[in-house]
Amino acid sequence: MRKKTAKYSKLLSDLLKRSDNIILVCHQNPDGDAIGSMLGFARYLVNQGKSPVMISPDQIQEFLRWMKNSDSIIINENEPGRAVKSIKEADLIVMLDFNHVDRSGRLKDHILASDARKILIDHHPDPYFDVDLLISEPEFSSTAEIVFSLVRDIEGEYYLDPEFIEAVYVGIMTDTGNFSYGTFNGNTLREVAIMLDKGLDKDLIASRVYDNFSIDRLRLQGFASCERLIYLEEARTAYIYLTRADLDRFKHKTGDTEGFVNIPLSVKGIIVSALFIEKENHIKISFRSKGDFNINTFAAEYFNGGGHKNAAGGKYNGTMKECLEYFEKLITGSSLLRK
Ligand code: 5GP
Ligand code: MN
User: Fold this and answer.
1) 258 alpha carbon to ligand 2 midpoint, in Å?
2) Closest approach atom of ligand 1 to CA 98
3) Which ligand 1 atom sits closest to the C-alpha of 34?
């Protein structure tokens, strides 16, 4: 069964054709899907004779920096003037992998103030955005898969440029945890099969993404599982917390804690897992759940966040101690989690 993106293709290709200054923007703390979908779409546009400008609100994680052209993404945190100037000159802004303008961080006000036409391409549920073309498909594995499908619709056949395929594959692979969770299905795998037939080197890409960390990161992971893992058996929950001092001790770099939130899920019976990271003036949280427990709603209601049904994130303004007490109270009070 083919998932339908064809309904967007006429308007999408019209908007692309009519635009000369196209800006692509991804979400804060961009993950493999944010960067993969942005690089993939940019590659397609370049091949169409366009000169898209890519902007990320903040740093690109170490494990994605090998990706072709990732060094040409403007990092707003480093070069705010350049990013804002590009947005001001844009006649089309394409936003990828987020469902609320808040997720673009400090770019938000500039995006809202811009007269450019706007397109949102995303797979998170409940988009809340005023745009000219809303491409919201929550049943897709990743935004990258939507991009692959949209380009196929426009081109009338699979678009098999190697750099395009590599970028979208990174998005699909990372958002499904190397094809172990998330909303991928037979259609996703059929698309991946076509990429493999075309010569995509899946082992090399997996190795670049998953075997690309420092020894300090591996030690931090061991420390986190051993010393900073709290197991709430009754509530079928386990979480990891890491303070600034913990991160400093293991010479933490951006991206080092990526994936840590999945560690507690390997314990039998666990339904909810969380990762709390102490930032300069808030606590950043990642959540995961299994089955029917909707962690997206939980993150939105109590931690000013959002995401997907089984993978979401949020923030807490306060100390780590206050945050953990608040979380434990909420989660132990949740009747859904008792055996
Ligand atoms: P992760 O835990 O891997 O950073 O994020 C899991 C999912 O939750 C992703 O789809 C991500 O976009 C979303 N997410 C993470 N943090 C936030 C947040 O602060 N607000 C919202 N709305 N979504 C978030
Ligand atoms: Mn995604």
Assistant:
1) 14
2) 12
3) 12
Please choose from 38, 101, 103 the residue to mutate so as to test ligand 1's pocket, defined by most ligand atoms within 8 A of CB.
103
Pairing type for strands 117-122 and 272-278 reads unpaired
Domain made up of 2-210: CATH architecture: Alpha-Beta Complex (3.90)
Task: Return the H-helix or E-strand segment holding 258.
Answer: none
To the question of domain 216-332 being in CATH 3.10.310.30, the answer is: yes
In the chain, domain spans? 2-210, 216-332
Residue tagged 């800006």 (tokens): 23
Give pLDDT tens digits along the chain (339 positions). 456 899 999 999 999 999 999 999 999 999 999 999 999 999 999 999 999 999 999 999 989 999 999 999 999 999 999 999 999 999 999 999 999 999 999 999 999 999 999 999 999 999 988 999 999 999 999 999 999 999 999 999 999 999 999 999 999 999 999 999 888 999 999 999 999 999 999 999 999 999 988 999 999 999 999 999 999 999 999 999 999 999 999 999 888 999 999 999 999 999 999 999 999 999 999 999 999 999 999 999 999 999 999 999 999 999 999 999 999 999 998 766 665
Q: Identify the residues whose C-beta falls under 6 Å from ligand 1.
A: 27, 31, 100, 103, 124, 261, 286, 305-308, 311-315
Give the C-alpha separation, 148 to 195, whole Å: 10
Q: Does the pTM exceed 0.85?
A: yes
Tell me the backbone φ, ψ of residue 290, rounded to 5 degrees: -120, 150
**In this structure, what token pair is assigned to residue 272?**
């909810």
Q: 248 by DSSP, 3-state: which?
A: helix
